[in-house]
User: Which sequence fits this backbone?
């Protein structure tokens, strides 16, 4: 039992990022460790209950969990303090290009414990000037610049042992997940550029059917309770249906609990929810924050419209708008849309479309059953993280 407890705890700690001291923010690190310990303790309690064939008093479990939390908080705060003293923020130079790097700067500045952007230089100033500046910093952030200039900077930084942080292009993601071939004395990278194999699709579909049936049975009390709250709040339909896109750009009707007022888009303009959106009904805020509004999608999974894991199903109108600027956005539909997914776990609701595309391509190009399992296990962690469900900024609601 102790051995199994240790294995489960290590697995969940590793999955949720509980060991990433100095990598995750302090609050995220604490949250990851606490979640891993709580899930491990609950699983162990259920295991003991099955072995003893009756429910035991949870008093000892609660005491042990409380002690665990005290140790976790003390250890994390102490170790983070030591890490901060040992590794002060790196002085960084940001090299910007044609595409705006505002969002990148905003994200990096949010981690002032790790990075400090001391200077921003446009690539148009020339490689010679950049080479002189690069030597004055601990690291270089290479924004979305042209491949030729980027290659020159990368080689220069490698020659001078200066670390680089690169914004990957779509072609980088495709190349990174290619297979290395050593048939000749010249290295080759093979990209098959296919979706899932037949065997992978069959296994994925089998898991979807079994998982959705179990999920529907377990969640049935929640369906009744949430439906009642929506009726009492707004007296309108409980289920909201909307056209979305799945594999091969096929349209389907997605099911969700209604979180907005009726006729929220009566002007006919498709828009994402924004921060402080007045269209959201009172119960809708809780449902969206915990993602419980997506529970009816279990029926979409059972029907075969969606999968448990895959790219977020987007609206045809929004996709058409996005593709005017990013034609590659349709690459996401090489697999079925998902209830959860790589972009949903590692991105946010308001992550830019370009970054969502790169995250989804990372999933598609690295697909495996174990990756699906990891993303499913990761989903409970992001359900209660505010930044994962926050709305888009008001100026971005139509993009």
Assistant:
């Amino acid at each position: 039992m102790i051995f199994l407890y240790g294995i489960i705890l290590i697995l969940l700690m590793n999955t949720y990022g509980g060991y990433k001291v100095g990598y995750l923010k302090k609050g995220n690190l604490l949250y990851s460790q606490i979640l891993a310990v709580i899930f491990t303790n609950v699983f162990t309690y259920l295991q003991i209950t099955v072995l003893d064939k009756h429910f035991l008093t949870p008093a000892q479990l609660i005491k042990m969990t409380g002690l665990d939390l005290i140790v976790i908080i003390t250890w994390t705060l102490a170790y983070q303090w030591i890490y901060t003293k040992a590794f002060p923020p790196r002085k960084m130079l940001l090299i910007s290009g044609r595409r705006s790097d505002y969002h990148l700067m905003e994200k990096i500045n949010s981690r002032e414990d790790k990075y400090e952007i001391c200077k921003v230089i446009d690539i148009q100033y020339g490689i010679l000037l950049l080479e002189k500046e690069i030597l004055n910093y601990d690291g270089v952030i290479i924004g979305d610049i042209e491949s030729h200039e980027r290659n020159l900077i990368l080689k220069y930084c490698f020659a001078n042992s200066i670390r680089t942080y690169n914004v990957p292009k779509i072609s980088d993601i495709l190349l990174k997940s290619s297979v290395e071939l050593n048939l000749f004395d010249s290295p080759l990278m093979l990209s098959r550029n296919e979706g899932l194999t037949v065997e992978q699709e069959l296994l994925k579909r089998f898991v979807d059917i079994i998982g959705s049936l179990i999920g529907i049975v377990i969640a049935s009390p929640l369906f009744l309770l949430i439906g009642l709250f929506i009726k009492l709040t707004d007296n309108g339909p409980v289920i909201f249906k909307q056209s979305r896109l799945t594999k091969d750009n096929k349209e389907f009707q997605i099911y969700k609990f209604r979180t907005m007022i009726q006729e929220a888009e009566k002007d006919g303009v498709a828009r994402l929810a924004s921060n402080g959106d007045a269209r959201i009904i009172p119960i809708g805020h809780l449902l969206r924050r915990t993602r419980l509004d997506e529970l009816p999608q279990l029926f979409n999974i059972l029907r075969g419209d969606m999968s448990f894991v895959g790219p977020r199903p987007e609206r045809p109108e929004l996709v058409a708008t996005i593709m005017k600027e990013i034609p590659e956005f349709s690459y996401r539909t090489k697999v079925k849309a998902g209830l959860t997914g790589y972009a949903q776990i590692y991105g946010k609701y308001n992550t830019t479309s370009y970054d969502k595309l790169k995250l989804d391509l990372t999933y598609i190009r690295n697909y495996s059953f174990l990756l699906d399992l990891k993303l499913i296990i990761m989903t409970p962690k992001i359900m209660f993280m505010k930044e994962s469900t926050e709305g888009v900024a008001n100026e971005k609601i139509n993009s």
